[in-house]
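Quarterly update from the structural biology core.
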Amino acid sequence: MTDSAPQHLFVAGLHRSGTTLLARWIADHPAVSGLSGTGTMLDEGQFLQDVFPSDVEHGGPGRFGFDPRAHLTENAALLSAHNRETLQSQWAKYWEPGKLLWLEKSPSNILRARFLQAIFPEARFVFLLRHPIAVTLATHKWSQTSFFSLIANWVHVHQLHKQDLQYLNHWLVMAYESLIYAPEAATQRLQDF
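Predicted structure, tokenized:
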């Protein structure tokens, strides 16, 4: 492929917004290695490392956004060369060498993108947004969270996310609905990115 180091690609979006579908779709490309067969919930990288707490430790789906500690930026105390090496080595066990892109998907990356960019400056981010009512209904089925709280979490997380975008160098926001109803156009947007 190339002699240069692979670039990191992070997929993010609230739980039940289609991040697993999108990550698997991207990982099907021959130049991409995604996390798979890890034995963790939905092959999410947040469960394969010990540098930062998972969203479960911040309240889980529909609640993690309310915990201020879930919002990691370039000012996080966790930012260090040691933690960069630790994350890289913990995730690299599951990535295929020789690929151009190494993909990691965790929904709560939506609040960690600035931190991840500080750790991996070449990183790119694809954020998936889905209508808040659809996310709420899908999440409510398996969470112990009220409809009101789920909607409030969606709004809060997306407000923080919108503010964070100005600090990111390489990002793309896509609508879940565009993946479903216009997959060819969505594929082209991803390829152009």
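The two ends are 19 Å apart (CA to CA).
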